[in-house]
Amino acid sequence: MSGGVDSAVAAARAAEAGHDVTGIHLALSRNPKSYRSGARGCCTIEDANDARRAADVIGIPFYVWDMSEEFHEGVVEDFLSEYAAGRTPNPCLRCNEKIKFAAVLDRGLALGFDAVATGHYANLRTGADGLVEMHRAVDHAKDQSYVLGVLTQDQLAHSLFPLGDSTKPDVRREAERRGLLVADKPDSHDICFVADGDNGGWLDEKLGEQALNRGGDILDHATGEVLGQHAGTHRFTIGQRKGLRIGHPAADGQPRFVLDISPVQGTVTVGSREDLRIDALTGIRPRWCGTVPSLLQGPEVTVQLRAHGAEHRARVVVAGDDVAVELLDPAYGIAPGQAVVIYEGSRVVGSATIATTSRTVSA
């Protein structure tokens, strides 16, 4: 129970369905004030109090579990190291993989519980082969199957998503009917461990002199011309347009975007939006929700490359721990470190971390 409306209603529904429910709030920082301030639905003292009040209204036991060490090692350190290497990680996906459905689930099973229930918007079904399948939520605008694509079959078998068949407005109305004070609480959007939402400033502080000494050139992709200087490659992501601080416009008057980040050379390369287009990528460290595929193709195969991003028709080839994806619909601004989540229709097949992206060069 994060302290937000979704997890509160999920707990209420689970209890109403006859499950023996215990509310758990995760303390992810030993100093909550060092994480995001304000009642935003995650990681603050206010959120812990909101979760406790919701549990009291529902009438279930409530505990706070200290997961700060696991969170720091599995999520925060991963975020730091990925940015330092010029990649763009997804900390919410990593939190699901390392914390909510690993550390929490393991502790819950050891204590005699059967499953972890969360307020994520996704659906679970039993397939014809007897395996548990994860599908997109009914509310596609709130669907969170992308950040759950790292879950294995064993984890899915011990998971519950009570909100998968609902829309967000329905959940808020239900919370109000149930007397839950979080009914109108805003959703959280920023990274929970970045207090003010300033990722670059936070990375400056955490990476210290190592980051501040990484200033270098901003280069033009087409000409190799030095267009300006930057204060650290960690302040940029692939596809970024704002904050480049380039002194003069492009020859065609169009905006420039970040195309490449090289921490070793200390360079950031920029170019046109069309230069961002990719139609192939490779993935590593795959995690499969069920049977490991070897080849996925056909009209129902799609991939999603960002949380709440568009679906792209694709052809996928799997060889051991390597995943090759051919995009039949091109994508723009995709960065190594992000996740590619593979679907067949509404079913999640699995996920991999993007290692490289490429563009087919026309003859």
Automatic annotation (TrEMBL):
<feature type="domain" description="tRNA-specific 2-thiouridylase MnmA-like C-terminal">
    <location>
        <begin position="280"/>
        <end position="354"/>
    </location>
</feature>
<dbReference type="GO" id="GO:0002143">
    <property type="term" value="P:tRNA wobble position uridine thiolation"/>
</dbReference>
<keyword id="KW-0963">Cytoplasm</keyword>
<keyword id="KW-0067">ATP-binding</keyword>
<dbReference type="GO" id="GO:0000049">
    <property type="term" value="F:tRNA binding"/>
</dbReference>
<keyword id="KW-0547">Nucleotide-binding</keyword>
<dbReference type="Pfam" id="PF20258">
    <property type="entry name" value="tRNA_Me_trans_C"/>
</dbReference>
<keyword id="KW-0694">RNA-binding</keyword>
<keyword id="KW-1015">Disulfide bond</keyword>
<keyword id="KW-0808">Transferase</keyword>
<dbReference type="InterPro" id="IPR046884">
    <property type="entry name" value="MnmA-like_central"/>
</dbReference>
<feature type="domain" description="tRNA-specific 2-thiouridylase MnmA-like central">
    <location>
        <begin position="213"/>
        <end position="271"/>
    </location>
</feature>
<dbReference type="GO" id="GO:0005524">
    <property type="term" value="F:ATP binding"/>
</dbReference>
<dbReference type="GO" id="GO:0103016">
    <property type="term" value="F:tRNA-uridine 2-sulfurtransferase activity"/>
</dbReference>
<feature type="active site" description="Nucleophile">
    <location>
        <position position="95"/>
    </location>
</feature>
<dbReference type="InterPro" id="IPR014729">
    <property type="entry name" value="Rossmann-like_a/b/a_fold"/>
</dbReference>
<feature type="disulfide bond" description="Alternate">
    <location>
        <begin position="95"/>
        <end position="192"/>
    </location>
</feature>
<dbReference type="InterPro" id="IPR046885">
    <property type="entry name" value="MnmA-like_C"/>
</dbReference>
<feature type="site" description="Interaction with tRNA">
    <location>
        <position position="120"/>
    </location>
</feature>
<dbReference type="InterPro" id="IPR004506">
    <property type="entry name" value="MnmA-like"/>
</dbReference>
<feature type="site" description="Interaction with tRNA">
    <location>
        <position position="338"/>
    </location>
</feature>
<dbReference type="Pfam" id="PF03054">
    <property type="entry name" value="tRNA_Me_trans"/>
</dbReference>
<keyword id="KW-0820">tRNA-binding</keyword>
<comment type="similarity">
    <text>Belongs to the MnmA/TRMU family.</text>
</comment>
<dbReference type="GO" id="GO:0005737">
    <property type="term" value="C:cytoplasm"/>
</dbReference>
<dbReference type="Pfam" id="PF20259">
    <property type="entry name" value="tRNA_Me_trans_M"/>
</dbReference>
<keyword id="KW-0819">tRNA processing</keyword>
<feature type="binding site">
    <location>
        <position position="119"/>
    </location>
    <ligand>
        <name>ATP</name>
    </ligand>
</feature>
<comment type="function">
    <text>Catalyzes the 2-thiolation of uridine at the wobble position (U34) of tRNA, leading to the formation of s(2)U34.</text>
</comment>
<feature type="binding site">
    <location>
        <position position="26"/>
    </location>
    <ligand>
        <name>ATP</name>
    </ligand>
</feature>
<feature type="region of interest" description="Interaction with tRNA">
    <location>
        <begin position="142"/>
        <end position="144"/>
    </location>
</feature>
<feature type="active site" description="Cysteine persulfide intermediate">
    <location>
        <position position="192"/>
    </location>
</feature>
<protein>
    <recommendedName>
        <fullName>tRNA-specific 2-thiouridylase MnmA</fullName>
        <ecNumber>2.8.1.13</ecNumber>
    </recommendedName>
</protein>
<dbReference type="InterPro" id="IPR023382">
    <property type="entry name" value="MnmA-like_central_sf"/>
</dbReference>
